[in-house]
Amino acid sequence: MGPMADYWAWTLAQPLQTQMAMLMGLLVVTVLFLKTLTGMLNSRRPPCVGGIPIIGGFLKFIKGPLPLMDAAYAKHGSVFSVNIFHKRMTFLIGPEVSSHFFKANDLEMSQKEVYEFNVPTFGKGVVFDVDHKVRIEQFRFFAEALKKNRMRTYVGMMVMEAEAFFDKWGDEGEVDLLQQLSDLIILTASRCLMGKEVREQLFEKVSELFHHLDMGMLPISVVFPYLPIAAHRKRDWARAELSKIFSKIINNRRDSGQSEPDVLQAFIDARYKNGTGLSDDEITGMLIAVLFAGQHTSSITSTWAGLHMLAHKQMVWPQAEEEQRKIMKTHGDELNFDIINEMDHLHCCVKESLRIHPPLIMLMRMCQKPFTVTTRDGKDYDIPKGEIVATSPCKAHRLEHVFKDADKYDPFRYMPPRAEDKATPFSFIGFGGGSHGCMGEQFAYMQIKTVWSVLLRKFDLELISPLPEPNYEAMVVGPKGPCLVKYKRRNL
Ligand code: HEM
Predict the structure, then answer these.
(1) Mean pLDDT for the stretch of residues 381-389
(2) Residue ranges per domain, the chain?
(3) Looking at residue 13, what is its pLDDT?
(4) What is the pLDDT at residue 49?
(5) What is the pLDDT of residue 66?
C-alpha cells in the first residue's frame, strides 16, 4: 500500500468526530488556497504585501502598521493589500484613491463590522451594536448634542475650567505637558459632556471607572473583545457601575424637572422618529462613546500643538502672541466662541500638529458593495464585497505630492494662497471626512485653542525635553516619553 492509501485507512479508522474535524480542516485549507489562487489570477486585485498568505501580513502588521505602510507604499503605490488570517485588508492611501472610502454611505462601506470590538465598552443597544437605521438616528443625537448653538455654552465651560486649572500652577516651575493637559481635558469633558453632577460631586469615582474602561481596551481586545482576561472583567464591572451612577443622575433630573446645558441632557431629551427615547443604559453608552471619541484625541492634540509650537518657537510663537494681543485690544480678557474663531494663526498651528501627528492612524470600513478604484497613474483595482478597507491619516499626510516638504512643520501651508489642504478633497484627514467625518471637530478646536489662548496670555513657556517620538503601540497615538515644559507666570 502507498502512503496515501495508508493515510486514508488510518483516517477511516478514527472515531467519527475526529474524521469530521479533519474533513473541516481540509475544507478550510482548500477554501483558503482557492481564495489566494483566485486573488492571484485576478489581475485587477490590488498587489498584496509579501509574506506567507494567512499569517504573513498579520505578523508584519502587528509589529506596527506604519513601517508596513511605508514599505508597501514605496513598493506598490497608493493601493495595496495585506493578508490578515483569511481576510484581506486593502489600504487606500492619498486623496486620489480614498475619496470613495469617505464619501460612501453605510450600505456601501460599513463601520459596524470593523468597529464592533467597542461594543463591550460602549454597551448594548448603542452605536455599533444596533442596525444601520437605528445607528443613523443615534448619530443624529450626537450631531444635535454637538451643534453650534450648544457649542457656545460649552466654550464658556471650557474657559472656566482652563482658567481655574492654570490658576493653580505656581509662579514658575516645570510640568509634563501631556500629563497636565490630559488632567484638564478630563475636567472639561466631564463638565461639558457628563454634566455638573459628575464634575462637582462624583468626579473621582467616575474618572476611576473610566480609567478601567480605558485599560480594558487593549490591542488584543480589537481581535478578541470578550477574551476572559482581568482587564476585560474590570472593564465590564466598570461599565455596569457607570450605568448605575448615570441612571441615578438621569432619574434625579427627570424627577426634579431640572435641565442642564450638557451633552447628557441632549441624550436624555433625544427622541427617535417614532417618539421613543433612549433607556438610561443606552444614554450611558452614548456618553461613553463620545468620551472615547473625544478625550484622548483632544488631550494628545493639545499636547502636540504646544510641543510643536515650542519646538519651532522662532517660526510661530511671536505671531501667536501678536494674535492674542490684537484680540485682547478689542475684547479685553474675554474668551468666547466668536473670539476663539478669530484666531486663525493658532488654528493653523493646531491643524499642522494634527497633520504631522494624527492620534488616529488608521480608519477602517468593511466593503459591502464592490467598487473600482483608479490610482493617479491610471491603474484600476477591483475591491470585492467583504474586504476590509483602510486608510491612514499618518501616511496620507506625508505625501509629497499633496503637502510640500511634508515632513516639515509649517502651519503657513494652510493659508491662502498656498492652501495645500484645499487643492484636492480628502487631503487633510486628521478628522476623517465625508459621511463619517468627526462630529466633534469644532468642539476639539475650541477646547485646544482655549487651552493655548490661556497659556499664551498667562505664561512664558519653554520646551526642555526633546520633541518626543509618537507611540505607535497605543490605540490612540500620542507622544512617547517626557513632554517637559518650563513655565513662568506673566501677563501678555
Ligand atoms: C483632536 C481631536 C479629535 C480627533 C483627531 C478626532 C478624529 C476623528 C476621526 C478621524 C473620526 C473618523 C473616524 C472614521 O472615519 O472611522 C472621528 C469621528 C468622530 N468623532 Fe472625533 N476626533 C476628535 C475629537 C472629537 C471630539 C472632542 C468629539 C466629541 C465631543 C468627537 C466625536 C466624534 C464622533 C461622534 C465621531 C463619529 C462620526 C461618525 O462616524 O459619523 N471627536 N473623529
Answers:
(1) 96
(2) 42-118+359-396
(3) 60
(4) 83
(5) 80
207, pLDDT greater than 50? yes
Contacts of 84 (CB under 8 A, 6+ apart): 57, 58, 61, 388
The closest residue, in CA terms, to atom 1 on ligand 1 is 298
- Rounded to the nearest angstrom, the distance between the alpha carbon of 144 and the centre of ligand 1 is 15
% of the chain with per-residue pLDDT over 90: 82
- Strands 371-374 vs 459-463: parallel, antiparallel or unpaired: unpaired
pLDDT at 54 (0 to 100): 46
CA of 308 to the centre of ligand 1 (A): 22
- Contact of 456 with 492, CB cutoff 8 Å: yes
pLDDT at 178 over 90: yes
- Average pLDDT of 178-200? 95
- Amino acid letter, residue 80: F
Specify the amino acid at residue 61: F
* Residue in this structure with the C-alpha cell 526633546, named with its chain if needed: 466
**C-alpha 321 to ligand 1 mean position (Å):** 29
Question: Amino acid letter at 218?
Answer: L
Ligand 1 mean position, distance from CA 207 (Å) = 21
Ligand 1 lining (C-beta closer than 6 Å): 139, 142, 146, 290, 293-294, 297-298, 301, 354, 359-360, 363, 430-432, 436, 438-440, 443-444
- CA pseudo-torsion sign 173, 179, 182, 187: negative
Residue located nearest, by CA, to atom 9 of ligand 1 = 431
Residue 220 pLDDT class (50, 70, 90 cuts): confident
C-alpha cell belonging to residue 335: 474668551
Name the residue at shortest CA distance from atom 13 of ligand 1: 432
How far is C-alpha 338 from the geometric centre of its chain's CA atoms? Answer: 27
The angle at the Cα of 121, spanning 252 to 124, to the nearest 5 degrees, equals: 70
Q: Which atom of ligand 1 is nearest to the CA of 193?
A: 30
